[in-house]
Amino acid sequence: MSKNIRTEAVDHLFEAILNLKNKEECYQFFEDVCTVNELLSFAQRFEVAKMLREKKTYLEIAEKTGASTATISRVNRSLNYGNDGYDMVFDRMDK
User: Care to name a GO molecular-function term for this sequence (predicted)?
Assistant: First the structure.
C-alpha cells in the first residue's frame, strides 16, 4: 500500500521550494530543512539516476557514488516504473 503524499503540508513545502530563486537560496533553505545526511542522500539518488540514464553499470555507479546496490535498484525501479519525475527534470536540464 503506497502512502498518499498529497497533503496540505506537502503542498506548502512545494510552494516554498517553488519560491526559491537560485542555487544559493536552495542551499540556505535545504540546509535549514534537511539534515546533512538527508540532503546528501537526495543528491546521491539524483546522481545514481543520472548515471543509470547514461547506461552505467551498478558497479560503476556504486564506485563513483558510494550508493548501495539496494539504493541503485530502488532508483532504477523509480526510473522504470515511477511517475517520470526524474525524466522530466533531466529533459529540462538537457535543454
Answer: DNA-binding transcription factor activity
